[in-house]
Amino acid sequence: MPESPQPTLLYKLYCGLMTTAEPLVWRKVRGKLQAAGVSNTRQQERLGHASLPRPQGQLIWFHAASVGESLSVLSLINRLGNRLPEAEFLITSGTPTSAELIGKRIPTRTRHQYPPLDSAAPVRRFLDHWQPSAGIFVESEIWPRLIVEATNNGAPLALLNARLSDKSATGWKKRPKTVRFILDQFKLFLTQNTKTADNLIDMGADAKRVQPGTNLKAMSDPLPVHQETLDAIKSQIAGRPMWIASSTHSGEEEIVLAAHRLLLQRWPDLLLLLIPRHPERRDEVIKLAGDAGLSTAQRSTDQPIRSDTQVYVADTLGETGTWYALCPIVFLGGSLKEIGGHNPFEPAQAGAAVITGPGFFNFAETFAPLIETGGAVLVNSASDLSDSVALWLSEKDVLAAAQTAAQACVNTQKSALDEVIDTLCNRLSLH
Question: What is the 3-state secondary structure (H, E, C) of the chain?
Fold first, then answer.
């Protein structure tokens, strides 16, 4: 049996540097949390001081980077909770936005904490208090000391939904001994695709621990719908034709607004519901609409949708599911620029057909069957986007076929979640 990789000089240097830099890192992190209105008690979680007691019994810990990764594990926790009725769960994530959204949708027997800084004292406080029975890291959120110390503490670890580009893999391979040491801490790697699986094995991961899977975000539960809000907005829209542009980024709104101007020539009362990915960009987005000669209403200030409102800027958090319930035509942003795209199954689960730009590489495996079956269409310009929306506005049977195809892809992916749970339970000895 081959000897397990040992801590390398590079790993030891990293640990020393992080401990030395802890005061500076803490000052920066604390400043961001304070600016977001996070209480002092919860800020202390980043130093490993828990704000909640540890529950009795088995505690399964999920660690995620931010919003998308955090929300993607909620359906997995719900399923695991049904499989393991005595288990308790902990989610750690680093951003106030993720904490807020998780709080609104947190499963039973689950609690959220901010993760400790990756230095000696915070990591030790965190692990001494929570004593996780198993740890599941989501995507590529790799904190070496936290991972190594968790393993030393007796928690079997899995890296779930792993995604690794060729560029990242090439960089990691320059430090082969250290990479192999870190990868050896994990009992299981469930990757988003075969390419990542191959890269992990090339980097030194034990091939027996690597299993290609699917994008966990594609298996997440439907976004919540607030019925009272939905009814109120429907009343304001009063049956007008509409379409949605969701999770848009800088440089994309101009294209979306240009497409909307083209559509208004055919449907003068058409409403665009525009959901910027980052609500703090609201002023920029509203100015862009004004510069395009379009009238706006703003959700965060409770401005009503009037008969002459051409763009409704939905600049709030946690309401996207309600907006998707309004309309089955959704353009999904992060794709007209090289951003990586966003989860198309969120609108598809709500009954929508999806339009995307070409830059959806973070969800390539998810989009491929959607586009192939007609549940999603690919556009490259304002003209393309206008034409696609116009087709679905004017040809209801074509739209219905696209909706059906999108839902079929969702149903296919859902069945894979049970396989993920079986694998996790077996490899991490969860029972």
Answer: CCCCCCCCHHHHHHHHHHHHHHHHHHHHHHHHHHHCCCCHHHHHHHHCCCCCCCCCCCEEEEECCCHHHHHHCHHHHHHHHHHCCCCEEEEECCCHHHHHHHHHHCCCCEEEECCCCCCHHHHHHHHHHHCCCEEEEECCCCCHHHHHHHHHCCCCEEEEEECCCHHHHHHHCCCHHHHHHHHCCEEEEEECCHHHHHHHHHHCCCHHHEEECCCHHHHCCCCCCCHHHHHHHHHHHCCCCEEEEEEECCCCHHHHHHHHHHHHCCCCCCEEEEEECCHHHHHHHHHHHHHCCCCEEEHHHCCCCCCCCCEEECCCCCCHHHHHCCCCEEEECCCCCCCCCCCCHHHHHCCCEEEECCCCHHHHHHHHHHHHHCCEEECCCHHHHHHHHHHHHHCHHHHHHHHHHHHHHHHHHHHHHHHHHHHHHHHCCCC
